[in-house]
Amino acid sequence: MSQWSQVQQLEIKFLEQVDQFYDDNFPMEIRHLLAQWIESQDWEAASNNEAMAMILLQNLLIQVDEQLDRVSQEKNLLLIHNLKRIRKLLQGKYHGNPMHIAVIISNCLREERRILAAASMPVQGPLEKSLQNSVVSERQRNVEHKVSAIKNSAQMTDQDVKYLEDLQEEFDFRYKTIQSLEQSDKNSALIKQEMLALQAMLNTLDYKRKEVLSKIGRVIHEIDMLMSNMLTEELLDWKRRQQIACIGGPLHGGLDQLQNCFTLLAESLFQVRRQLEKLDELLTRLTYDGDPIPVQRPQLLEKVNFLLYNLFRNSFVVERQPCMPTHPQRPMVLKTLIQFTVKLRLLIKLPELNYQIRVKATIDKNVSTVSNRRFVLCGTHVKAMNMDESANGSLSVEFRHLQPKEMKSSAGSKGNEGPHMVTEELHSISFETQVCLYGLTINLETSSLPVVMISNVSQLPNAWASIIWYNLSTNDPQNLSFFNNPPAATLSQLLEVLSWQFSSYVGRGLNSEQLSMLGEKLMGQQVSYNDYQLSWAKFCKEHLPGKSFTFWVWLEAILDLIKKHILPLWIDGYVMGFVSKEKERILLKDKTPGTFLLRFSESNLGGITFTWVDQLENGEVTFHSVEPYNKGRLAALPFADILRDYKVIMADNVPENPLKYLYPDIPKDKAFGKHYSCQPNEVSKPSDGGVKGYVPSVFIPVSKILNDSTDPHSPSDLLPMSPSVYAVLREHLSPTVIETAV
């Protein structure tokens, strides 16, 4: 089943997450129509290779053309129209930058895998539960309801102001009428009657002015209370969800809803401002003793302007944190002289502001960091916000060509900085702009979450550990001195985040048993880790007992191994991975001989091994493990092929594959058959192909086990021998000769 087919079977709450990252940059129609073809291409490799990306883009357009031909024959007018529009959009947007669409599609496929993994995990961790709190959802609904009510109140007040304006015009007319009558006869009964009516009208006018001002005051108070309480909490919650999403957690949504609330409140405040301006016009035409307008209007206008200033300042947000396109799963880690992207949005979406706001990006503005390293931003660092680049029409700007450059120290050195010092330095990307609207001038500033600057890609793992620890431990957006005294983290939350690293980076999270093993490895013993506090040093700086590397370096090497060499096996759930040697033997001891499991090495960085159970003639149960395979060996021979072709030569010199069943009882070929590079019966025979005069060959991993030893032997004795050649040799050579050759 294709990945897209699996996505379509998800529950609605997961489908809503999928819907969030498909837009005009990569339309969902194309994802649906070309599902299998898209999944069969290596978009991640193309995101770092312009020539490959250009070929894939051209092939993508060809695929779209073929779909156009098909739907044209079916006379599907709507689909024909959409495909023509999409083809034109893709060609126009990516012809000059093909790697950009490779990055987008690679990210979309990765997010799909993460969501599929999240959907398959039965238990939510403490962080994810806190993000999906029912109280938070209820508050979101209350905010939307109150914003709608405020908008209605402001519109109703508009009608009151219009009525007041009509009433004052009638008063002006009658007043002028009386003035003309007074010139002829000041003492007539008609004039006295008109004067009494005019006084009554003035009393009504005074009452309506007070009523309008009171209603305006209530609207302002409701906006003030909403902004001070629920809307501020909503914005802070969104920023916290963004932090969690950046370190692999659930995708964060809700920004469009916030934009709707901010925009409606801004429109309401500007509407109230116009109402106050209208009252000022009425005041210039008529005032009297006890008139409430000159007393109350200045205070109300000052309050409206104050709320507008605060609303605009809070509405300027970093929608997508700084990230190198080459490392989409590692945001906020930036390498010198490598481009990164960052996107900002103004949550107040007013047509008058389109292309009118120019945003400037700087680094470490008005802040001091923990070292002497200083940086500048190269590339286009000033751009205008607009509504055209975003698929949802938001007022935003995306910087795509910024590069951090380190300034040379005046002392000619970078100071006394250890290996961890650089990756614990936090820096800030700042953005500033100015909004000029309806006579108001508002200066806006915002900053990214703290970023780590590296100069060598080897620093990436520790830099990413810093990003994880910071965003796990604090919701402070700008604590650049955080690592001067980093707080401890709750072990249960840390393990949840570690599972996210696997679900976001390699498409499948960790189950409770795997997390339990990691918890034991971190603590050195079995613990109830719900409320256990773990230090930063233990996570990333102190070596594991008896090892020359830290816990994080060990885990990062495993992630790299999975990503590059055993990804399909991991996604299928066939790699148990995190299991200790002791637990391994407990699991296997009662199983059928030939049952094996796959686990990651605890002593070799980025190593994977397999252990199988066997039974001697006397009934004794034995266990055999091969020396771990690392990325060097796996680059030469796919791991699935190793499992298929692995041979053991026992003391009687009869080679056989001891691997029969994947734990608990899955036939080996059923589990791994679809991942073999070729089926056994498809391996070349000695007379087939190859260079003339030579027998075609493949590598076969072979180990030798003596009866008096159960010690594992190295799998490094890889024979350059095809299965078919091996069969021919067995027909013509004795086992003794074969052993000698081995």
Number of helices: 25
Overall pLDDT confidence: 83
Ends apart, CA distance between termini:
42 Å
Give the biggest sheet: 5 strands, mixed
Q: What form results from the Cα inertia axes? A: elongated
| Count of extended strands | 21
Strand order of the largest sheet: 15-14-13-18-19
Kindly report the CATH topology of the largest domain. Answer: SHC Adaptor Protein
CATH hierarchy class name of the largest domain? Alpha Beta
CATH architectural type of the largest domain: 2-Layer Sandwich
Overall domain count: 4
Radius of gyration: 35 Å
Low-confidence stretches: 411-416, 681-689, 708-726, 732-742
Class computed from helices, strands and strand pairing: alpha+beta
Helix content: 40-55%
CATH homologous superfamily caption of the largest domain: SH2 domain
Strand % is 5-15%
Organism: Anseranas semipalmata (Magpie goose)
Keywords: Acetylation, Activator, ADP-ribosylation, Coiled coil, Cytoplasm, DNA-binding, Isopeptide bond, Methylation, Nucleus, Phosphoprotein, SH2 domain, Transcription, Transcription regulation, Ubl conjugation
Domain SH2: 570-672
Family: Belongs to the transcription factor STAT family.
Topology:
Blueprint: H1 3-8, H2 12-20, H3 28-33, H4 35-39, H5 43-46, H6 50-74, H7 77-94, H8 98-120, H9 126-131, H10 134-182, H11 189-246, H12 255-285, H13 293-315, E1 316-323, E2 333-335, E3 340-346, E4 358-363, E5 374-378, E6 382-384, E7 395-407, H14 419-423, E8 429-437, E9 440-447, E10 452-454, H15 460-473, E11 489-490, H16 491-506, H17 512-523, E12 533-534, H18 536-540, H19 551-571, H20 581-588, E13 595-600, E14 608-615, E15 621-625, H21 631-636, H22 639-645, E16 647-649, E17 655-656, E18 661-662, E19 666-667, H23 668-672, E20 699-704, E21 718-720, H24 723-732, H25 735-741
Parallel strand pairs: 2-10, 13-18, 16-20
Antiparallel strand pairs: 1-3, 3-7, 4-6, 4-8, 5-7, 8-9, 11-12, 13-14, 14-15, 16-17, 18-19, 20-21
Helix pairs in contact: 6-7, 6-8, 8-16, 10-11, 10-12, 11-12, 11-13, 12-13, 16-19
Pfam families: SH2, STAT_alpha, STAT_bind, STAT_int, STAT_linker
Organism: Anseranas semipalmata (Magpie goose)
Keywords: Acetylation, Activator, ADP-ribosylation, Coiled coil, Cytoplasm, DNA-binding, Isopeptide bond, Methylation, Nucleus, Phosphoprotein, SH2 domain, Transcription, Transcription regulation, Ubl conjugation
